[in-house]
C-alpha cells in the first residue's frame, strides 16, 4: 500500500516519517519531490575497485549550474533528509528530468526502514545537461510494510552529502569473518 499525498503530509507532521526541511508545495498525489543538494562527487580513478576505497573529487554546484557530461557518474544528494521507522521509502527520478536524459537512480531506489539522512543520487546524463542546486530532481514514495521491523543500522546511516561506495567495507568484514 502506497501513501497518498495527504497521508505523507500527516505522517511528516506526526513523526511517522521525517522530511527536513518539509514543504507542502513538494507533496504530490502519492510522492514527495526532493531537491538536488549543492555537492557532487566524481570518482577520479580510471578503474574503480570494489575491494578498496576509490579516490574522489568534490564539486560545489555554483549558481550558474553545473554541466554534467555523458559517460560520467556523478554522486549527488538530496537537499532533504528523509527517513522513516515505519514506512519503506522508494526514490525515483522525476519524469521531467528523465525526459532531459538524466538517469537519477540507476540501481538502488529502495531505502531501508530506519535509515535517516540525505539520499545519495547516482546521476548519469545521456547528453550534456546543466543542473542546479535546489532543483526538483526526484520523488520519494512511501509504502506500508508488513511483518516485524528490523531498523537499518548500516554504514550510510545519517548521511550528509553524497556518499561514495563503501562496498569495500563489506569485503573487509567478510575477510575478517573468514580468517
From TrEMBL:
<keyword id="KW-0546">Nucleotide metabolism</keyword>
<protein>
    <submittedName>
        <fullName>dCTP deaminase</fullName>
        <ecNumber>3.5.4.13</ecNumber>
    </submittedName>
</protein>
<keyword id="KW-0378">Hydrolase</keyword>
<dbReference type="InterPro" id="IPR011962">
    <property type="entry name" value="dCTP_deaminase"/>
</dbReference>
<dbReference type="InterPro" id="IPR033704">
    <property type="entry name" value="dUTPase_trimeric"/>
</dbReference>
<dbReference type="InterPro" id="IPR036157">
    <property type="entry name" value="dUTPase-like_sf"/>
</dbReference>
<dbReference type="GO" id="GO:0008829">
    <property type="term" value="F:dCTP deaminase activity"/>
</dbReference>
<dbReference type="Pfam" id="PF22769">
    <property type="entry name" value="DCD"/>
</dbReference>
Amino acid at each position: 500500500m502506497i501513501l497518498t499525498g495527504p497521508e505523507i503530509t500527516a505522517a511528516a507532521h506526526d513523526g511517522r516519517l521525517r522530511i527536513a526541511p518539509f514543504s507542502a508545495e513538494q507533496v504530490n498525489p502519492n510522492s514527495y519531490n526532493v531537491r538536488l543538494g549543492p555537492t557532487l562527487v566524481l570518482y577520479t580513478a580510471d578503474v574503480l575497485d570494489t575491494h578498496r576505497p576509490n579516490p574522489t573529487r568534490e564539486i560545489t554546484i555554483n549558481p550558474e549550474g553545473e554541466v554534467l557530461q555523458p559517460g560520467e557518474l556523478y554522486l549527488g544528494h538530496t537537499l532533504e533528509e528523509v527517513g522513516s521507522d515505519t514506512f519503506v521509502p522508494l526514490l525515483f527520478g522525476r519524469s521531467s528530468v528523465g525526459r532531459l536524459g538524466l538517469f537519477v537512480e540507476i540501481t538502488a531506489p529502495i531505502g531501508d526502514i530506519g535509515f535517516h539522512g540525505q539520499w545519495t543520487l547516482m546521476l548519469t546524463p545521456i547528453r550534456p545537461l546543466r543542473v542546479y542546486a535546489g532543483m526538483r530532481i526526484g520523488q520519494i514514495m512511501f509504502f506500508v510494510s508488513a511483518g516485524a521491523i528490523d531498523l537499518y543500522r548500516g554504514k550510510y546511516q545519517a548521511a550528509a552529502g553524497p556518499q561514495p561506495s563503501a562496498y569495500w567495507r563489506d569485503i573487509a568484514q567478510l575477510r575478517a569473518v573468514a580468517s
